[in-house]
Design goal:
The complex is a heterodimer of chains A (355) and B (424). Chain A has 355 residues and is of the alpha+beta class. Chain A contains 11 helices and 16 strands. Chain A is elongated and about 130 Å long. The termini of chain A are far apart. Chain B has a domain of 285 residues. Chain B is 86% helix and 0% strand. Chain B is elongated, with a radius of gyration of 33 Å. The two termini of chain B are 28 Å apart. Chains A and B meet through β4, β7 and α8 of A and α4, α5 and α11 of B.
């Protein structure tokens, strides 16, 4: 009798277990991270910009053509084939950035472009046409990584023929978009520079003062953003390469098509720092005062107007206009207007010429 | 056991045994036609139910998601170009578009929770909040004139064009193809049923010849009635299948020749509307070429659809969309054709966002409205044809079951008097 009771209890227990196992369990929601959205042209594995085989020194690249050799008509008008072409067209076309406050930005409400580099472009157009007429100047905005492909040179034409993505890039007469003077670009893009008009340095921006960061080396294992095709991405990659060569922990350089996308990525927490020209960083800081431009400065670079190397007359003419702006103080006034803080104000440079 | 088998074999060698066998074979043949026929009809009814109840809703939802988000992309950018008085109205339209897209995704998810579309619907649902966040942050920065706003708007536009619309397009194509396949399959001839039917008629013919030879009665009413019923069932099924195929073909034609090109033209129109604003807010290298291409492609799609639309109001409606598109192209001439004095930023912004002097809405909006009305109408026609196709198959299973059960009963009833003669 007792054995029968035990057996019955065991059977009931087994059935209860089976019943419990067979009971349906509600499906649980799968834990998934929110998607990470990155901008067009973002590269998590940044690469060095193209470096041509032959390269003179950067100092030599800054030696431009002397405006004294520019030909003038009897009425004093500067002449030359490129200048005649632009005058016939009725409009000077200049490649600029539209997203770097202080240097060059567009007011989204009025569409007006403003900034130190826009003042230079307006000065050149005024010198060329002799009138202060906005319709004589066309400011074409191009992303940082493509800006130098807009110059109509043999090298750029070959690059456009090879790369479908470059074919529809507009052509401009000159680029005034914080272009650092480097010898590598002379051969890569077939360009020549005006005499550099200002000097600047690469700086570092982070989100928050509380972080103990003084220089890029303190950002090991963290993402540092620069514009693709710039000297800045080259420098941060050099720092990473140096760390790698010494077996040290590395920074993670990432690049974007346009440098201004780095600010958006910093605000979203998708990168930890921005490594670019300190003048651009100052412009970013005006947009987001919560960010911090650190005191770190890398080597000085000189900024000039980039033009096609065959346009000697235009290069000499631009140098003549820049000389005039230096001489009459309009360049200094513009610099002081856009960079009012003497501590962060860029240094204007005296011209040096090759001939 | 051996003796039972032997007795059965002996029984079937006798005439009365053979008559029983013939009666059973005739009945089984008729019933087999019924079973195969009813199964085939159920299969087609299920396919048409699936097409009407699920695929139509999913394809329409996918179409809405694409249109709503392409529209949202255009409004997200236009809102930056207009003054502070007009911006809230365009922002409201953007939010309505996003709400409509989310609602369409909810419908798609409910209709096909575990199906082939679920992964795509989930991806779209995942990306939508990120898209809205980028646009709202972009607007917020643009309001205070911070250039970083254009970076957010550019990223949002890249997200919607580069990923969201691609997935929505895949979803729409997949569901439309599934809808068409279901209807084509449901309208295809029921060859297996006809084959079994011919076999059954052959069995009944042989049965009739056997009975005529053995009983010297030339005509057996039951077997003749049975054959007639099988024949009626076949004709009934063939007629219903032909009607179903006709309606299904109408539905597919409407989808292929009208809804698809009109939807493509509408999508290109919405993208072109966004391209115009992109040219100002974050210009890219190939803006003009892309805008020109989108307008040309939309015009060609509309003209092609107009040729296919039935003459009268339906064709006129499509043509009105074509006329609005041509006016839009002419209006955009300032942007698209190189000229010595290109329009200023403000002139271009007005050109893009304000209706022409004699119009109440922009040409881009007119194209969208005319095409949306045409798409709604032809989608309705397509759905009506799909419902008619399903209607053509309604009750066919019951008719087949009744006719073929009756055919089996008639065959047995026709042979029963002859069998009974041997047992008197």
């Amino acid at each position: 009798m007792r054995a029968a009771t035990r057996a019955s209890t065991a059977v009931v227990a087994v059935l209860a277990c089976l019943a419990a196992c067979a009971a349906p369990t509600p499906p649980l929601r799968e834990d998934r991270p929110a998607p990470v959205i990155l901008p067009q042209g973002y590269a998590s594995e940044a690469v060095h910009p193209p470096e041509p085989a032959k390269c003179v020194s950067n100092a030599d690249a800054g030696l431009s053509l002397n405006p004294a050799a520019l030909l003038h008509a009897p009425d004093g008008t500067p002449t030359g084939p490129k200048l005649a072409e632009i005058r016939e067209r009725g409009r000077l076309t200049v490649g600029v950035s539209q997203t770097t406050p202080l240097s060059s930005r567009r007011d989204l409400a009025t569409g007006e472009m403003e900034g130190f580099e826009v003042d230079i472009a307006k000065g050149i157009a005024r010198g060329l046409f002799g009138v202060d007429d906005a319709s004589r100047l066309s400011l074409v905005t191009v992303p940082t990584d493509r800006r130098l492909f807009t110059l109509d040179t043999t090298e750029n034409r070959a690059a456009r023929a090879d790369d479908e993505n470059l074919r529809d890039i507009p052509s401009v007469d000159m680029v005034i978009a914080d272009v650092s003077v480097t010898c590598g670009r002379v051969d890569t893009y077939g360009l020549k520079y005006s005499a550099p008009y200002l000097a600047t340095n690469t700086g570092l921006m982070v989100r928050d003062k509380g972080e103990r960061i003084d220089e890029p080396k303190d950002l090991v294992g963290r993402k540092v953003c620069s514009g693709a095709g710039t000297t800045n991405i080259d420098e941060i990659l050099d720092i990473r390469d140096d760390q790698r060569a010494h077996g040290l922990p590395e920074v993670i350089p990432v690049s974007t098509s346009d440098t201004s996308d780095c600010l958006m990525l910093l605000q979203q927490g998708l990168v930890d720092a921005i490594y670019t020209d300190v003048l651009i960083l100052e412009g970013f800081h005006t947009q987001d005062p919560g960010t911090v431009v650190l005191g770190y400065r890398n080597k000085e670079s000189r900024v000039g107007v980039a033009m096609a190397k065959q346009d000697d007359d235009l290069i000499r003419f631009v140098n003549e206009v820049l000389e005039g702006m230096r001489a009459n103080g309009s360049m200094e006034r513009s610099r002081d207007r856009w960079y009012p803080d003497p501590a962060t104000r860029p240094k204007l440079l005296a011209a040096t010429y090759v001939d | 056991m051996v003796s039972v088998r032997g007795e059965l074999a002996a029984y079937l060698r006798r005439t009365e045994g053979r008559l029983v066998l013939v009666a059973a074979s005739s009945a089984v043949a008729a019933l087999l036609v019924g079973v195969v026929g009813v199964t085939a009809v159920h299969g087609r009814q299920d396919q048409l139910d699936e097409a009407v109840d699920r695929r139509v809703a999913l394809a329409a939802a996918a179409l809405d998601v694409y249109r709503d988000l392409a529209d949202a992309d255009a409004y997200s950018l236009n809102a930056v170009l207009v003054g502070p008085q007009q911006a809230p109205d365009l922002q409201k339209r953007f939010r309505q578009d996003v709400f409509d897209a989310a609602d369409a995704l909810r419908v798609a998810s409910a209709r096909d929770p575990e199906g082939t579309s679920s992964a795509k619907v989930r991806e779209l649902t995942d990306l939508l909040p990120e898209y809205v966040r980028l646009v709202e942050v972009g607007w917020s920065n643009a309001r205070t004139n911070q250039p970083v706003g254009t970076s957010y708007l550019s990223q949002a536009s890249f997200l919607v064009r580069g990923r969201i619309l691609v997935v929505a397009d895949d979803l729409q194509r997949e569901q439309t193809e599934a809808l068409k396949a279901a209807q084509v399959s449901a309208g295809s001839p029921t060859w297996a049923v006809f084959a079994v039917g011919v076999l059954a008629l052959g069995v009944l013919l042989l049965a009739h010849r056997f009975v005529a030879r053995r009983t010297r009665r030339r005509f057996n009413v039951g077997l003749a009635a049975s054959a007639a019923l099988v024949l009626v069932a076949m004709v009934w099924l063939a007629t219903a299948s032909a009607f179903t195929a006709g309606h299904a073909s109408d539905s597919v034609r409407e989808l292929d020749e009208l809804v698809a090109p009109l939807a493509k033209a509408r999508n290109e129109g919405r993208l072109a509307d966004g391209d115009e604003a992109r040219m100002l807010i974050f210009p890219k290298a190939d803006d003009v070429r892309r805008l020109r291409g989108a307008l040309e492609s939309a015009a060609s799609g509309i003209d092609g659809a107009a040729e296919q639309a039935p003459p009268g109001e339906e064709r006129d409606q499509v043509r009105r969309a074509g006329d609005a598109l041509r006016s839009w192209r002419a209006h955009d001439d300032l942007l698209l054709e190189p000229r010595l004095s290109p329009p200023t930023y403000e002139e271009t912004a007005v050109l893009i966002t304000r209706p022409a002097d004699d119009q109440t809405t922009t040409y881009a909006q007119q194209v969208d409205e005319h095409l949306s009305a045409a798409i709604r109408l032809h989608t309705k026609h397509s759905v009506a044809s799909a419902v008619s196709a399903r209607g053509s198959m309604a009750g066919v299973d019951v008719v087949l079951a009744v006719l073929l059960t009756a055919a089996a009963a008639a065959a047995v009833a026709g042979l029963w008097p002859r069998i009974a003669e041997y047992y008197r």
